[in-house]
Specification:
The protein has about 190 residues and is mainly α. Helices cover about 60% and strands about 10% of the residues. Strands 1-2 form a two-stranded parallel ribbon. A two-stranded parallel sheet has the order 3-4.
Amino acid sequence: MRTIREPGGTPAGDAIRALLLDPGSDLEPRSELLLFLAARAQVVHDVIRPALDAGTWVVADRFFVSTYAYQGAGHGLPLPAVQGANALATGGLVPDLTLVLTVDAATAAARRASRGAGDRMERHGAAFAARVEAAYREALSPDWQRAHPECGPIVGVDADGTPDEVTARLVAIVVERTTPLVTLIS
């Protein structure tokens, strides 16, 4: 199994990540989108595709749904443009499964606050965070997923509880979703 973070995972992606998350960076939303997608294109080319071609599972901390949530809903960029730019960046790669951690807004805010000052993305304010959260909730609906097959299946996971409890829930869903595949391979 190969794990990656977005943006990042390559030298170019890590440099882009530093710029995107720097609280001192003043990026226009379209520039932000294109930087995220430049990092994604690089990690797909350098890491994800080669790993998948070698039969290795790839686990990413985020992928296309986060782009719809942050740059689409959060910043209000037109979703068809976001979708088209992502298709170019990924070469049409569709995740087999996306897990969205869900927790109430107060708990999410408390967790962010416990990490300190926050990066540039976390400093967009409460209204931005509410739009992002609403977009993630919408992405969990079957209707939204049918309208966005480029995102693959998306499952919500209750993130309330200890890290071990949440991890157990994540593992259970992955096992449930991959057991037929594992059985066929065995």
